[in-house]
Amino acid sequence: MAQYKPYKTACNEAATANILNREFDQTETRRFVVSDLTYVKVQHQWHYICVLVDLFNREIIGHSAGPNKDAALISRAFATVQGDLHQIQWFHTDRGSEFKNEKMDELLETFEIGRSLSMKGCPYTMP
């Protein structure tokens, strides 16, 4: 039986603050959108799934899937969001390189979305 082998990568040392600070109960729609990745086996190959979740009501507002764990996967998830991306105030994730890179910086800056990263060594991005 095949098992997923996680890749060891250096921790993102960005000084980005943890604005969310585990305050998972939100009272305003799209104030905090959180994201994480998971993986599934498709025809004997690992594929990744990215979901964007609005903490206000735990609704999945964006999603994407593909064979690569990269910024393009995250960008495609944002492309599926219905409505104006400017409504999202904060995007909170773990410190994975697929979330903190130049492509994501440009996307968040374009739509004036703030960034929040979980604390180093504490990957909890969703309740």
Automatic annotation (TrEMBL):
Record Pfam families: rve
Top-rank taxon, per record: Bacteria
InterPro entries: Integrase_cat-core, RNaseH-like_sf, RNaseH_sf, Transposase_IS3/IS150/IS904
PROSITE patterns in the record: INTEGRASE
Domain Integrase catalytic positions: 24-127
Protein name per UniProt: Transposase InsO family protein
Organism: Paenibacillus brasilensis
Lineage: Bacteria, Bacillati, Bacillota, Bacilli, Bacillales
